[in-house]
Structures are given as C-alpha cells and as structure tokens.
Amino acid sequence: MGNRITDLFGVQYPIIQAGMVWASGWRLASAVSNAGGLGIIGAGSMYPEVLREHIEKCKLATNKPFGVNVPMLYPDIEKLMEIIVELDVKIVFTSAGNPKTWTSYLKDKGITVVHVVSSVKFAQKAEEAGVDAIVAEGFEAGGHNGRDETTTLTLIPAVKEKISIPLIAAGGIATGRAMLAVMVLGADGVQVGSRFVASNEASSHPLFKQKVVEAGEGATQLTLKELAPVRLIKNKFYNDIQKAYADCATVEELKSLLGRARAKKGMFEGDLEEGELEIGQVAAIIHEIKPAAQIVMDIMTEFTHAKAEVKHL
Q1: What whole-number distance in Å separates Cα of residue 31 and Cα of residue 61?
Q2: Going from the N-terminus, what domains does the chain have, and what CATH number goes with each?
Q3: Who contacts 253 (Cβ-Cβ below 8 Å, separation ≥6)?
Q4: Taking a C-beta distance cutoff of 8 angstroms, is the pair 222, 231 a contact?
Q5: How much is the pLDDT for 254?
Q6: pLDDT along the chain (313 residues), means of 10
Q7: Number of helical H runs and strand E runs in the chain
Q8: Which of 3, 5, 86, 273 could cross-link with 236 by S-S, CB 3.0 to 4.6 Å?
Q9: Which stretches are transmembrane (predicted)?
Q10: Residue 308, Cβ neighbours under 10 Å: how many?
C-alpha cells in the first residue's frame, strides 16, 4: 500500500505507532517497524543516556525505518537532540510546543520532522515552520490532549482543508475500519497509541496493560486542563482530582496533588490506585494483549476488507 506517508517514511503501511511515555521503548518500536509500520521510541520518559540505549538497541533489532518522539517541554531537550543527530536517527516527531524551535535544526541535519497538533491553527503554524507532515490528534486520544476537545471526526477534515503536506490522523484509532474512516476524511495515514499499549512489547507494566483491556465505555476522562489536559482511567488518583475540583482547588494545589513521577508510578510501576493511567477512549474496544506485529496485521486486514465492503454501498 503506497501513498504520501509510506513514501515519506519508507515503510510498507501508513501506520505509525505513537511515541507514548512509559510504553514506547525499543522493543515496541522495532516490532512495529519490522511488521511494516513506523515504530517510534517515546523519549518523553527517558533520560538522555536511556534514549541513547534505546536507539542503539532498536538499530540492532530492525533494519527498517523508525523514529523518536520528543516532547518540546522536555527539560534537557538539547541533550536529546544531540543524541538523535549523533546516532543518525532519520525521523523525529515533535509535540507539546512550538515547532519553530527545532524544525530547521533537524531538517538541516537531513531529518524528517513531523509535529503533533490538536487544532487547525497549530497545524498551519507547523506547516509554516517547515515540518514534513502533521499528526492531528483528536480529543479521544490518551495522554496529554487538546484543550478544545475537538474530536478526530471533526479535526481531520478541518485540518485537511488548510494544509498541503501529508496528514496523519490520531485519536480513537485502533482498528482497520477506523483507519479507513479517517483516510476517507482526508488523512494519509494513522498514528495508533492505545492499541499498542496493550501489546506484548510495550514497556508499560503488565497490570496497566490488563487495566486497559478491562476498561469499558466511559472508563476514561479528560482532566487537569489547568496544568496540561490529560485523559486518564478513573481510579483513586482520578477521584482525588475530582474531589480537589469540588473543593475549589487552586492551580498550585492541583500541582501538589499531581506531584512528581505520577505517570511512572501508574503506567510503568503498575500502581493502579495512586498512579496516573493515561489511555484513550478506544480502550473500550481493546479486549486482548497481542504481539505488536499481530496488531499491525489485524489493522491492515480489516482495513482491506472494510475498503472492499464500502464499494458495495
């Protein structure tokens, strides 16, 4: 299957595995790349030398293209970028910040740059900054999210109307049918996060993976907009947040409640009560932990069948 995304990244399928914190290490990235998609190492939860180790191991585990996701708010971002350039990583996804800051630097090094946005305005700014493609992520997505709560169904055609570079849809995509739907709306490819959290190769804790599989409709909620909007599974920590809101907590009090390493505690260490459990709404239709390669094949098989079915409508 060839299109603007497969051509841009040199991959077989226009499926990108999201660079999720505490889930997207070298094992997951290499497995997705070997299966024909684009694997991404999530640098947001890694110290610089840990990122170096993951890139080096990923290179040994696959000869296919892979990338690194770098949140722009990362405190030692300069060190991450130095390692990425030194180790000759060819693809970088940036998020949570101004794409102008690093796009020119990376492109001057011959690196393909993709920026993640949650609105038309920021998609246009990213294109103006010179990125090669855009990920438009809807409100359904897990982790940190847009404040406007624009759904993927609305966001993709709105962004498509205003940009000319390749567009990748994200948020609520875990199946081939969803992939077909967003491509009909104008996307050239998809970024899949939550479905890959529930994979054998994800570095997230087994208890968190099982919690994702067990999550039903309404199990998640977007919260903490005053700090950085994040979609969480409802647990004790989430209930503590709601109580804080009911008590009219200040921003500083919310920051104190969040504390440090809350996401690591939940998603990596498996504390299902006190930890931050980030996952998308689509968890409601994820029922099994599978190998990453099987997830890629399942999505592509369903996409092909659904595409054939549509011809009969």
Answers
A1: 8
A2: 4-203+283-310 (3.20.20.70), 216-281 (no CATH)
A3: 244
A4: yes
A5: 94
A6: 93 97 97 98 96 98 98 92 98 93 96 97 97 97 86 97 98 98 98 98 98 96 90 96 95 91 95 97 97 98 95 77
A7: 14, 11
A8: 273
A9: none
A10: 9
